[in-house]
Amino acid sequence: MKLNHQLMLLAAIVVAAAPVWARGPDELPLGKPARALQVDEWVSGEPVTLAAGKDQNIFVIVFWATKCPHSRACLPRLTEMQKRYKDKGVIFVAISAEPVETVRAFIEKQGSETEYRVAVDKLNITTGAYLRSVFIDKIPYAFVIDKSGKLIWYGHPMSGLDKTIDAVIAGTYDIEICNRRDRARKRMPGYFATACSPRHADKASGIGEKIIEDGQADIMLMNEFAWKIATQPGLIKRDLDLAMRAAQIAYDACEGKDAGIVDTYARVLWESDRKQEAIEYQKRAIKLAEQEEMRKELEKTLAKYEKAVEGD
């Protein structure tokens, strides 16, 4: 599924904080010291600093928003992981750039379900610095900082975060995992340019294979890749088998619980002429959609599918 309204709002917040596509002196490359958390208010849990936790704690910083359905879908998982890793010195911090009142009302409604710390970054200082440093303008997004205070992983909270934490605790984590994913992301523009070229379209599959190989640890990258293959106009070669592989990876990673990812999965099925299956998965996506705006968008897609089937 393409970026929804909430993700576009987050992109605007990041852009307002600083240029998304330009690295500056405050960049946060992998393996380097992470930037201090500059937040305006702690809404839930005791305030923490990276400096105070050095040599003692592993930090997981998650950027999110109350109005983002993808963010809300991953919050129960954060609570689960905070409980699981609490005695291992892992501290989860969820940071929102929304108004304090909005975040506080949401967290109070959650009650005991919130085990992680929650902070508000209304000036977008930390949100902008972290997200733009890795060329990301979408949420939810998580960053892992090891006991030495270095940034060692970033990605979707539901895409390999727990395995990463396990590896860091065990001392077996390989930072090359993140480097491979970055290479996959950088290959995306080249893939679609090649797939749109009459002279070079047959070479796109090789690039696509590398994107799958290196980027499969990033759930949102796989979802985006699948969606674009299925929907982008102008492709000389629309590799729906490749799209399905990417969509399946994303679907399995979110356990079929993310409405946007299930919507993408349904779209790839539809484009692959598996129409009845597409309709069934589109219905699942609608049931998962928490926000009315997103649900209406998914319902419109379902109506198009059903109308097309009736006309066959």
Q: What report would you give on this structure?
A:
With 312 residues, the protein is an alpha/beta fold. The chain folds into two domains: 5-173, Glutaredoxin; 178-311, Serine Threonine Protein Phosphatase 5, Tetratricopeptide repeat. The chain is built from 13 helices and six strands. It has helices at residues 5-17, 50-53, 69-85, 100-110, 125-133, 161-170, 176-195, 204-215, 219-231, 240-253, 259-271, 275-288, 292-311; strands at 41-44, 58-64, 90-96, 117-120, 141-145, 151-155. It has a six-stranded mixed β-sheet, with helices on both faces. Strand 2 (58-64), helix 3 (69-85) and strand 3 form a beta-alpha-beta unit. Helix 1 crosses helix 5 (125-133). The protein is globular. The protein starts with a helix and ends with a helix.
Strand content: 5-15%
CATH homologous superfamily designation of the largest domain: Glutaredoxin
Order of helices and strands: HEHEHEHEHEEHHHHHHHH
Number of helices: 13
Described by the principal axes of the CA atoms, the overall outline is globular
**CATH architecture term of the largest domain:** 3-Layer(aba) Sandwich
